[in-house]
Amino acid sequence: MNVLIVFTHPERHSLNGALLDVMVAELKAQGHEVQVSDLYAMHWKAAVDRADFPDIGPDERLKVASASSREFAADGLTGDVKAEQDKLRWADTVILQFPLWWFAMPAILKGWIDRVYACGFAYGVGEHSDRRWGDRYGEGMMAGKRAMLVVTVGGWSEHYSERGINGQIDDLLFPINHGILFYPGFTVLPPYVAYRVDRLDEARFRTVADELRERMRTLEATSPIPYRKQNDGEYQIPTMELKPGLETPGAVRFALHVGESKSQGE
């Protein structure tokens, strides 16, 4: 299996750096091929601007989606973006690793998404009509690939529980899991989240490392989050609302879009 890890931390000699080493070592021990995109070490350009679209005229108004679509179709995107797209094509599994900063991913990782997820590559694909709203949410360029998040958090797990003051962790990560990974077609695995990392002692680090090794060993067997696919008939077109009566009892908001778990092979 080919695994791409997008590593997002400004300090390589950090807890996140140590966890990266744990993952890479375990994956290679299992016989997998691994590539790492270390965004800070790469000095990744995070902001989308005119420089991303070399063919745009000096007097042409920048419309990011249309410019992205045109450059992608013409193989005209910048070299750094095309290199990351090639890594995504190569990968069977993609892991986004990052510390939770201000309830979201670091800006540099969001910038990687903004630039690499070009129109025609990660969105804007498939038939768009009154019968079908494109190949997305379970379909698309990343269909057949797996993805997961590895996230470090400073707060307690209770702070991110159903009644926790910070909000439930599944809700905070929903825009990433559902909107960034599931949207272009990834099969999304439950995230691995390490809590209270600012006060992690050696014993707790060993526990976290062991848990993460186990997640790496079971990447191919872990049951994914059962998000509902857009084009399986559960959503009304064109409003894209879940059809009445399909919700899991008691489910509201984000949870509406998670169906019942299926056993492996279904």
From TrEMBL:
Keyword set includes Oxidoreductase: yes
GO cellular component annotations of the record: cytosol
Transmembrane parts of this sequence: none
Pfam families assigned to the protein according to its UniProt record, in alphabetical order: Flavodoxin_2
Regions annotated as coiled coil: none
GO molecular function, one term: NAD(P)H dehydrogenase (quinone) activity
Keyword terms: Oxidoreductase
Flavodoxin-like fold domain segment(s): 1-214
Family: Belongs to the NAD(P)H dehydrogenase (quinone) family.
UniProt name for this protein: NAD(P)H dehydrogenase (Quinone)
Source species: Acetobacter orleanensis
